[in-house]
């Protein structure tokens, strides 16, 4: 069992936030609670394997909330795609209503929206995420699909340790099914290869079936599934203000 303080989350939410991983036994739930109480934690994110039914039951017995069935998709990259998509560009402008709307679409199935105690902060969280991406604080690049000068889709990405990862990706509802998502993925994958990353990963939620099917269609395979719990420790469990 590993318990780690999450400094960014704690500062953002003004709560003592911890992450718990490497939990191997259902009997550890009581020990986790004891340690989190000693740390005066407000909430902990618990990451466990999908197959550990006994541990799931134990966590739920103690009051942890299942908020995400997190799937990681992976694809090896070999050569750049022939895109020819003039409407896909690297974006260096300011935050606007179109990008903000798309970032909220990207988080529609987020555990921070599913958890009623975090949901009041969902918009602020994703506004901060896209704002930091524009500043290149949590992303190396941001691509958009523009048609008639209107942004129809966007994706953020970064390269780290020789692997590319996709952050936020969304297409406006009215433009779905028109190939924009695939164009954005091609642009990202080309960017990864150009920056010496020959693999790409992206995380989605099992409940977001449309996204999962899309990633499989464009050549990604599932390599990991985790169950994510939010365990609110304080007895009052007040929603965030």
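-> sequence recovered:
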């Amino acid at each position: 069992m590993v318990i780690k303080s999450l400094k960014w989350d704690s500062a953002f939410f003004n709560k003592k936030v911890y992450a718990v991983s490497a939990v191997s036994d259902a009997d550890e739930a009581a020990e986790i609670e004891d340690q989190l109480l000693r740390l005066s934690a407000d909430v902990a994110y618990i990451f466990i394997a999908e197959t550990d039914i006994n541990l799931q039951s134990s966590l739920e017995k103690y009051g942890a909330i299942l908020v995400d069935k997190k799937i990681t998709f992976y694809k090896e990259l070999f050569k750049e795609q022939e895109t020819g998509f003039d409407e896909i560009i690297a974006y260096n402008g300011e935050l606007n209503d179109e990008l903000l709307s798309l970032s909220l679409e990207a988080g529609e199935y987020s555990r921070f929206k599913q958890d009623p105690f975090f949901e009041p902060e969902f918009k602020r969280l994703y506004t901060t995420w896209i704002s930091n991406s524009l500043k290149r604080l949590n992303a190396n690049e941001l691509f958009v699909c523009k048609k008639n000068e209107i942004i129809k889709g966007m994706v953020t990405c970064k390269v780290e340790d020789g692997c590319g990862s996709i952050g936020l990706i969304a297409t406006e509802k009215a433009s779905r099914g028109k190939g924009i998502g695939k164009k954005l993925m091609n642009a990202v994958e080309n960017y990864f290869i150009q920056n010496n990353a020959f693999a790409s990963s992206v995380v989605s939620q099992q409940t977001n079936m449309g996204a999962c099917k899309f990633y499989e269609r464009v050549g990604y395979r599932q390599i990991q599934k985790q169950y994510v719990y939010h365990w609110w420790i304080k007895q009052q469990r007040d929603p965030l203000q």
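Strands lie at 2-5, 17-21, 43-49, 65-76, 88-90, 141-147, 150-160, 163-171, 199-205, 221-232.
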